Amino acid sequence: MENMRISQLTASLANLDDMALWLQTKAAAEQEKQCCAAVIAHIAELKKRKLFLLYACKSIFDYCCTVLGYSESKSYLRCQVAGACIRHPELLEDLAAGAISLCVAGKLASRLSEENKEQLLPACHGKTKHQAEVIIAAHLPESVKDSPANKPELVPLSADEYVLRLPITKNLLAKLQRCAEVLGIASMKAQLPELLEKIATITLAAKDPELKATQQAARKKSGARKLAAPSLATPVGSRSEDPSSRPREVTSSTQDSPRTRNIPAATRREVLRRAGYQCQFVTSEGQRCSQRTFLQVDHLQAFAKNGSHESANLQILCQQHNNLKGAQEFGSV
């Protein structure tokens, strides 16, 4: 029966226009928030009454795993938040209103108190999990500093792999995030090993004299092999003519060169700087795209429609939004 309902829902969604689909998605997300808050409220009440004992469960955590069917991690998060909601009902109200997510509520659960909740809860409204962690650290620095995770540690996993743990400053984090953007790494956190590998490679290529000497020797060796190899196209002893040394024939096509898509580097830098190195796509509600990687220079008046390379006609879009604009203007390819 449930499979039939889902198939019917999928079929109905396929027939919606873009605006209707967008509105229904927002409505569904709001319903999900309400359902999440309702589940937390139920778990909290079950915990207060200790009704989990009637189902042969030793704890509310055990009940969530065995009866409700949540995974261990999801059960732990919900039990942690439910316990905090018993102590601080305002947390449940914010969760139901969508002011905070379940993950953020989990970060707040063990740190909320009567003394700090009036400042800490509003500060975390609308924040991501990472942003909430930064806010909590700013409000309660000692609770974070005392964590064992803040001690630098290098742990071997195998003969070729290690786990590196260390606290870093806000300034270093900003530099790493900018490096990720410059190197085209979409998620610094998820791709941190790849980012560090690229930074190390670039640094060694620029600064390591041993590596430079090795590369220079390899280039000399490669150049010597090329000089020693006879050309198959030119008989030995004959002189080959450099095509670039021939006089160029002047034609109408060379006199009136066609328009080029190449945007001057100085103009690119100006447009990127003006955009703050971020995609300039903005929704009808004023929400700007946060993408700062894979940025492209886009013509407001399309180049194919005689748009110029003047900076006033240029903007910065991420690859996805540039493709979307092209599809809207010229149709899907």
Folded structure, characterized:
The structure is a single chain. The chain is mainly alpha-helical and 333 residues long. It is 55% helix and 5% strand. Among the domains are: 26-150, no CATH class; 168-207, no CATH class; 265-330, no CATH class. It has 15 helices and four strands. The strands form two sheets. Strands 1-2 form a two-stranded antiparallel ribbon. Strands 3-4 form a two-stranded antiparallel sheet. Strand 1 and strand 2 (162-165) form a beta hairpin.
- Helices and strands, in order, run as HHHHHHHHHEEHHHHHEEH
Strand content: 5-15%
Major sheet strand order: 1-2
- What is the total tally of β strands? 4
Radius of gyration equals 30 Å
Estimate the global geometry from the Cα principal axes. Answer: extended
How does the major sheet shape up? 2 strands, antiparallel
Helix content: 40-55%
- End-to-end Cα distance: 39 Å
**Structural class of the secondary elements?**
mainly alpha
Low-confidence stretches: 232-241, 243-257
Rounded average pLDDT: 84
Count of alpha and pi helical runs: 15
Summarize it:
The protein has 333 residues and is mainly α. Helices cover 55% and strands 5% of the residues.
